[in-house]
Amino acid sequence: MGILDLMLRWPVLRQIARGDVKALGETAMTERSRTLEPRTARADRVVKSVCPYCAVGCGQDIYVKDERIIDIEGDPDSPISRGRLCPKGSATFQLVTGTHRVQHVLYRRPGGTEWERLPLEQAMDMVAERVKRTRDETWEDTDVNGFSVQRTLGLAHLGGATLDNEENYLLKKLFTALGIVQVENQARI
């Protein structure tokens, strides 16, 4: 390979030699850039989802390969966001795959002075057990007038503004099935 051939491998010199001053054509390509493809091209499947950050409900396409998320992008079929995501929505991939993601909870036992780390699964089991115990201990078949109420007043739920309509629907169904009557949502939008 001569010196001229070597020099023409540099994109800037190729641009000058071929008169491609804006570098919009073949002169801007390298062997690496010729073989590039989107991360999404090798996905096994695409799962439709909704961004978890606010109540707008922007659509997301979740690209999955070997049961692992490889990319998250805006869903162009979404009538709400039409393929667009805000900076927080665009960062959802890091939210679900980042090494900084918390895999445990901090728990301080009643009367304790120190925090201890518990696995997330154990903490969820503890919450479920406490919900069941509270429901069982505060269950009312009838009210003071003898009317059938089938409820508990020992539990309540306050939802957040990041919940979309579908999530709120499912939460309402769950808590109604548990006999919980105090179900509210702190909605901003």
From TrEMBL:
Domain 4Fe-4S Mo/W bis-MGD-type residue range list: 44-100
Keywords: 4Fe-4S, Iron, Iron-sulfur, Metal-binding, Oxidoreductase
Cofactor: [4Fe-4S] cluster
Subcellular location: Cell envelope
Record keyword Iron present: yes
Keyword 4Fe-4S recorded: yes
PROSITE patterns listed in its UniProt record: 4FE4S_MOW_BIS_MGD
Entries under InterPro entries matching the protein: Mopterin_OxRdtase_4Fe-4S_dom
Family statement: Belongs to the prokaryotic molybdopterin-containing oxidoreductase family.
Name by which UniProt lists this protein: Formate dehydrogenase major subunit
